[in-house]
Amino acid sequence: MDELLKNLPAPDFVKLDIEGHEAFAIIGMAGTLTRHKPILFVEMNAGALAAQGHNVEGLRDMIEHLGYYAAALYPPEATWDDLQFDVLFKSKPIPE
């Protein structure tokens, strides 16, 4: 993804709903995410992630390690233990 995006304008929003392959996309665009810090909207589907050898906690940790925090879950009543939900990730503020 980083290679594909290098000749395009910097993204300010990225939506990932790719049936369990979200971790692979995050790994592939880690450079872009680190440099440009677009807002992320990521589907968390526990079953689909497990089929690819990943899990919700690991994907969340991967994204947080790149300087993001979970700003909101969707639907609003969702919890991290649900089988499927979406997460809005925003860039952590840089300390002054």
Cα radius of gyration in angstroms: 13 Å
Distance between the termini: 31 Å
| Total strand segments | 4
The CATH architecture designation is: 3-Layer(aba) Sandwich
The CATH topology is Rossmann fold
Determine the number of helices (DSSP H or I, runs of at least 4 residues).
5
The average pLDDT is: 94
Biggest sheet layout: 4 strands, mixed
CATH structural class = Alpha Beta
Quote the beta fraction: 25-35%
Q: How are the strands of the biggest sheet laid out side by side?
A: 1-2-4-3
Morphology: globular
Q: Could you spell the SSE succession in H and E letters? A: HEHHEHHEE
Which residues form runs of ≥5 with pLDDT under 50? none
Percent in helix? 25-40%
Tally the structural domains.
1
Question: Which structural class fits the helix and strand makeup?
Answer: alpha+beta
CATH homologous superfamily annotation? Vaccinia Virus protein VP39
What features would you describe in this structure?
This protein is α+β, with helices and mostly antiparallel strands and 96 residues long. The protein has one domain (2-91): Vaccinia Virus protein VP39 (Rossmann fold, 3-Layer(aba) Sandwich). It is 35% helix and 27% strand. The chain is built from 5 helices and 4 strands. Strands 1-2-4-3 form a 4-stranded mixed sheet. The longest helix has 10 residues, at 56-65. The chain is globular. The N and C termini lie far apart (31 Å). The model has no long low-confidence stretch (mean pLDDT 94).
